[in-house]
Specification:
This protein has 224 residues and is α/β, with parallel strands linked by helices. The protein has helices at residues 21-29, 35-59, 66-81, 87-97, 107-115, 128-131, 146-149, 159-167, 182-190; strands spanning 5-8, 15-16, 102-103, 119-124, 142-145, 175-179, 194-198, 213-215. 43% of the residues lie in helices and 14% in strands. α1 packs antiparallel against α4 (87-97). It starts with a strand and ends in a 9-residue tail after the last strand. The relative contact order is 0.18.
């Protein structure tokens, strides 16, 4: 087997944050909650966060925690939707609810299969508040969380990826990272590792740096 280390992204790779969408939005909107307006705010917030991380990669902005990014996001969007809730309180609700995200149906089986063949780690753009409960679901050999490193996967230093390679004493091409986003693929590839893009929504890959493998879900991953 080529790979000695398999690293995982958490959100939208192992667990489905969308499963908590309406719980979060009900807390945000209160009595004015409707499904349609909740869907609109959730989509706008996703687009804001997506744009932030791409901007971070280019401009090398000063590090902000995810909670701070969520707070900035809601500070901009809440007035647009007439939400009276304090943006920091809303952001905290969203961050904490990440811990309740449901595992995808194939997650446990695939993770245990890989765990039986090689070492594993988590590399996640997240705050501890978002992920501490979810970590109990997995027995990773090591965990790399952006809040602890004050750097995201999109940062040009690729500290978390390179740190994993060093910590496990392997060559870069002996590591493969599994994730659902641009930052997962580019971060891993620029650190010298391979990348598996989990493309659950059949999106088109539009970037020059490409994943080594593309799967529809985790069940399609096979290591000989």
């Amino acid at each position: 087997m080529k790979y000695k280390l398999v690293s995982f992204d958490m959100f939208q790779t192992l667990v489905d944050v969308e499963s908590q969408k309406h719980e979060v939005m009900k807390a945000v909107f209160g009595e004015s909650y409707t499904k349609d307006i909740a869907d609109q705010l959730w989509e706008d917030a996703n687009n804001y966060v997506y744009a932030y991380f791409h901007r971070f990669n280019i401009d090398k902005e000063d590090f902000k925690t995810i909670l701070e990014v969520f707070t900035d996001c809601y500070s901009e969007l809440f007035p647009k939707y007439g939400v009276k809730l304090d943006s920091h309180i809303g952001a905290t609700i969203l961050a904490r609810k990440h811990n309740s995200a449901l595992l995808y149906p194939e997650t446990k089986t695939t993770f245990e299969k890989i765990k039986g063949k090689c070492r594993t780690c988590l590399i996640s753009d997240s705050d501890v508040i978002m992920i501490s409960d979810l970590l109990k679901e997995f027995n990773f050999d090591r965990v790399y969380i952006s809040e602890n490193y004050k750097e995201y996967k999109s940062n040009v230093n690729r500290t978390m990826f390179k740190g994993a390679i060093t910590d496990f004493g392997i060559k870069p091409d002996e590591m493969v990272h599994i994730g659902d986003g641009y930052n997962d693929v580019v971060g891993a590839k620029e650190a010298g590792a391979d990348a598996i893009w989990v493309n659950r929504n059949k999106r088109e890959w539009k970037y020059s740096i490409k994943p080594d493998y593309i799967v529809g879900d985790l069940s399609e991953i096979e290591f000989g």
